[in-house]
Specification:
Elements (H helix, E strand, L loop, with lengths): L12 H5 L2 H12 L9 H5 L10 E2 L7 H15 L4 H12 L4 E11 H14 L4 E6 L8 H13 L3 E7 L8 H9 L3 E5 L21 E4 L3 E5 L25 E2 L1 E6 L3 H14 L20 E8 L7 H12 L3 E6 L6 H12 L3 E7 L5 H8 L2 H7 L2 E5 L3 E2 L2 E5 L3 E5 L5 H6 L2 E7 L1 H16 L1 E4 L1 H5 L3 H12 L5
Parallel strand pairs: 1-2, 3-4, 4-5, 8-14, 11-12, 12-13
Antiparallel strand pairs: 2-9, 2-10, 3-6, 6-7, 7-9, 10-17, 11-15, 13-18, 15-16, 16-17
Helix pairs in contact: 5-10, 10-11, 12-17
Length: about 475
């Protein structure tokens, strides 16, 4: 989510409505820039009619058709009936320019302390280059030590390149980045948050929302975690009901080793080159990547110029082809009609559909825009849970015990249509089991919503939801 004015969920009626004036003024700027549109569901489902065999890349070359089929058949025997391993794979293969890659090791990192520690260690061990693309990079107890480490690595002969978003890092003092620049670190500010000296159109709602770290072209990280002090704390759900600024942010990151790392390197360099920065060259950026594990990974990126947003299509296709279970944790769930219909269809097929959404937030508007759809989701049979005592910022899904997705993309129009995003799809039963276990732990800290109780919520909530819904496209 890109809009964060640190307006906490208000208590009194007037306190709830006072922030609207400034927010509406900002969103009017968005409105003047026009609206794109998510594709019809037929555009995605037509792709499922393809009958070609699956295509899997190895560490050096594509697998044969027979070997690719054997891998998919082995997964099929492990999990039973599902169309995720047939129709969905073919659909995304037709749509995406990113292959399904074998031979990876994927490590699940839960919450800030674990993820920051793993990324810090990887940066410390870097030998050749460090490529970092971050939405929020703050001068605080999380961002400052990481900046210091990057400066140290640059001084030690490691080439460091950093992309930070102009809006996401707008509260970071310019001196913070100037210090890195003077140390020799190459910087690129994505879509600066200013009208001054701005070349070309000012697209405030086009944000660099990816969270990518690539080390020596051999290790990649992605997920929802920013370099921001809210990730300094570990889980402490006992803080529920206290000052919202003291709540920890529940998030998820992954570490990838193996051939799929090259796809993250490619995404970083594509953005870097768009910024008309010096173009890095050399085979060291794409070293030969050996097999590190048995996990299949497809790196899916969304960007404003895509005819069919790939992450959106991946979600829709996975939901439509699920046969057993769909478990989603989503920081900003603002579904369109296609997604609502896909969830409803899944429930009607007997799929267990459960979604964890935020119960606490740092900005009230997106959560209320999402709540405008809860009645329809509950009526369709989707089970909804609100996390309590933490700010849910995780963007994850696990389907049919085999298909998992972790990344930066929210489930809303802003992420699907306007932001640059990066998600990883992981096909692996062991990893999916870890994802399901994490989901169940989050369920224990969440409160289930029921239709009858939901309809009895205060009338002021209805008004807030309707007001937020008007601006859902830009949230």
């Amino acid at each position: 989510m890109i809009v964060s004015t640190r307006i906490l969920l208000p208590v009194g009626f007037m306190k709830r409505f006072c922030p609207l004036f400034s927010v509406i003024a900002c969103l009017c700027i968005f409105a003047l820039q026009g609206c794109a549109k998510l594709p019809d569901i037929e555009t995605i489902t037509v792709l499922n009619e393809s009958k070609k065999p699956p295509h899997i890349m190895g560490s050096r070359k594509p697998f044969s058709t027979d070997k690719s089929r054997a891998i998919i058949d082995a997964f099929q025997q492990q999990i039973g009936p599902t169309d995720i391993l047939s129709q969905h794979i073919l659909s995304m293969e037709t749509l995406s320019d990113s292959p399904l890659i074998a031979g990876n090791k994927v490590t699940l990192l839960r919450d800030g302390p674990q993820a920051i520690a793993s990324m810090t260690q990887a940066i410390h061990n870097a030998k050749d280059h460090i490529h970092l693309e971050m939405f929020i990079f703050r001068d605080d107890e999380v961002g400052r030590p990481l900046a210091d480490l990057l400066i140290k690595k640059q001084a030690g002969g490691v080439t460091v390149r950093v992309i930070h978003d102009g809006f996401g890092s707008r509260k970071t003092p310019p001196e913070f980045f100037e210090r890195m620049h003077k140390a020799g670190i190459a910087l690129y500010e994505f879509n600066p948050f200013t009208l001054l000296n701005k070349k070309g159109p000012w697209n405030l709602h086009k944000r660099g929302h990816r969270k990518i770290l690539v080390i020596d072209g051999k290790i990649a990280f992605t997920g929802g975690i920013n370099f921001y002090k809210v990730y300094a704390k570990g889980p402490n759900f006992a803080l529920a009901g206290t000052d919202k600024s003291q709540l920890f942010w529940r998030d998820t990151q992954i570490r990838i080793q193996g051939p799929a790392v090259a796809q993250f390197q490619k995404l970083f360099l594509e953005t870097w080159i768009l910024g008309q920065k010096n173009i890095p060259l050399g085979s060291h950026l794409f070293p030969r990547l050996e097999t590190k594990g048995d996990t299949l990974v497809r790196v899916i990126a969304s960007a404003p110029e895509q005819r069919v947003p790939q992450i959106y299509a991946a979600y829709i296709s996975a939901i439509l082809n699920a046969r057993n279970s769909i478990y989603i944790s989503q920081a900003y769930l603002i579904p369109d009609n296609n997604m609502l219909d896909a969830f409803s269809s899944a429930v009607q097929r007997g799929v267990d559909v459960r979604i964890i959404v935020p119960g606490e937030t740092d900005f009230w508007m997106p959560i209320y825009a999402g709540r405008a759809y809860y009645s329809r989701l509950l009526q369709s049979g989707v089970r909804l849970y609100e996390m309590k005592g933490a700010v849910l910022h995780s963007k994850t899904a696990v389907v049919d015990g085999i298909w998992s997705m972790v990344g930066s993309s929210n489930m809303d129009s802003l992420s699907f249509l306007h932001n640059t995003e990066a998600n990883a799809v992981i096909l692996d039963t062991v990893f999916a089991q870890k994802m399901e276990a994490m989901f169940k732990e989050d369920l224990a800290e969440s409160e289930e919503l029921f239709s009858t109780q939901w309809h009895q919520r205060p009338w002021t909530n209805h008004i807030m939801e309707r007001l937020a819904w008007i601006f859902k496209y830009w949230l």
